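Why should sequence recovery work at all? Because a backbone constrains its sequence more than one might expect. Tight turns favour small or flexible residues, buried strands favour hydrophobic ones, and helices have their own preferences. The token representation captures these environments compactly. In the example below, the structure is given first.
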């Protein structure tokens, strides 16, 4: 039941079903049920009913030439009305590695040739799903040093347990800090309501809470979930390699990002976070306008160019194509695919692509760079004047900018009646 060595390198074999029968590769052809075309007389006849014919391919005891002939016989005699051709196969394999226990894996592969658009350009798609399965109980694994496997397994258990315990302790401490902060906020809120008869503003309320605390709590939650899935994966209780990889990778990235909070003790090294804290509100407002315009271009490109090129065949493909164009990819290729369809489409495509490139590459990126540049200037002035605290803890500092008399930061006069003294940094 193994795959012939002519077709690949590795330890592979076809999958077997519950009755221990080989699951052979399958070729499925989808086309219009009744379709005929006479190009010479400009005649055609078809209905919208489709039919799908699937056939098994058995090349286990065949040569390469014989297998090719069998596959060709299964293909449609005429591509009139051809919609798609899908090849499905399941392959077993065993991953062997040095000083590690082998893993039994089932690979589910699907290769599809799509012609739904009927534009003459057939789209090729290949999907591969990785599923780790339990190996046979009669399998034996004998490492050169019998203690190596025990030491590695014990080391993984100790490392996973230590990481889980550390994440739980850190999460508990963050929750304790948030609870104390919330109680302080309630006391302050009641004090102002009783003695001054007013409520705390949003900026005053947000000054009690640090965004790093919520970010750290989220990081610990992702870390704990990732470690739990890894333990299940190592113990063969459940096999979710994709979920485990996403959680572990996200946890590593997020925990490294949280390390930036320790740079806040020296605002000179904290300049990136200070810049983002100033620029983020304006960038978000700009992004709202950008998204609205971007959706308009997506819908227009999908409707106009969808019937002529696969890059605009669906909304998701249109979104990906336009985003790639913003980054400098797919520009010439996409332009050439739609310009030759008709004279009107050629003119419209020029207007469409030229305006999109000018607007999003020249204008939008320049405005965004300008916003970030201005925010960095504000952050640098805040660091020199000792008011970097307000950039992170509240929105008082941007109002103080109205009182600055020059761009050098030497002569800074706050607005009348405002106190610019920053409290001690609580981070």
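From this structural description, the recovered sequence reads:
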């Amino acid at each position: 039941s193994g795959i012939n060595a002519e077709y690949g390198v590795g330890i592979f074999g076809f999958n077997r079903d519950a009755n221990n029968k080989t699951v052979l590769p399958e070729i499925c052809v989808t086309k219009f049920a009744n379709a005929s075309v006479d190009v010479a007389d400009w005649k055609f006849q078809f209905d919208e009913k489709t039919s799908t014919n699937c056939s098994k391919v058995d090349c286990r005891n065949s040569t390469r030439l014989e297998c090719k002939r069998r596959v060709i016989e299964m293909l449609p005699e005429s591509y009139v009305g051809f919609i798609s051709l899908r090849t499905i196969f399941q392959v077993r394999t065993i991953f062997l590695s040095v000083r590690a226990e082998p893993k039994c894996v089932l690979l589910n592969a699907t290769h599809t040739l799509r012609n739904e658009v009927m534009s003459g350009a057939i789209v090729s798609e290949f999907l591969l799903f990785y599923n780790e399965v339990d190996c046979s109980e009669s399998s034996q694994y004998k490492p050169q040093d019998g203690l190596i496997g025990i030491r590695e397994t014990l080391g993984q258990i100790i490392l996973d347990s230590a990481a889980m315990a550390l994440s739980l302790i850190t999460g508990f401490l963050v929750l304790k800090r948030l609870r104390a902060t919330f109680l302080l906020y309630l006391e302050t809120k009641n004090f102002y309501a009783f003695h001054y008869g007013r409520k705390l503003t949003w900026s005053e309320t947000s000054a009690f809470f640090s965004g790093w605390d919520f970010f750290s709590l989220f990081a610990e939650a992702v870390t704990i979930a990732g470690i739990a899935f890894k333990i299940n994966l190592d113990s063969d209780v459940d096999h979710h390699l994709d979920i485990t990889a996403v959680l572990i990778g996200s946890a590593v990235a997020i925990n490294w990002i949280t390390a930036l909070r320790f740079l806040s003790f020296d605002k000179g090294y904290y300049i990136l976070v200070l810049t983002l804290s100033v620029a983020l509100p304006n960038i978000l407002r700009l992004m709202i306008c950008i998204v609205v315009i971007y959706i308009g271009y997506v819908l227009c490109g999908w409707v106009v160019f969808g019937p002529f090129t696969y890059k605009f065949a669906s909304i998701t493909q249109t979104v990906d194509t336009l985003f790639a164009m913003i980054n400098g990819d797919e520009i010439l290729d996409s332009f050439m695919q739609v310009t030759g369809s008709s004279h009107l489409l050629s003119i419209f495509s020029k207007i469409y692509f030229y305006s999109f490139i000018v607007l999003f590459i020249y204008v939008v990126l320049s405005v965004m760079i300008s916003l970030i540049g201005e925010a960095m200037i504000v952050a640098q002035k805040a660091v020199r004047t000792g008011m970097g605290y307000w950039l992170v803890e509240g929105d008082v500092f941007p109002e103080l900018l109205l009182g600055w008399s020059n761009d050098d930061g030497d002569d800074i006069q706050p607005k009348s009646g405002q106190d610019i003294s920053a409290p001690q940094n609580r981070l």
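A few observations help interpret the result. The two ends are 64 Å apart (CA to CA).
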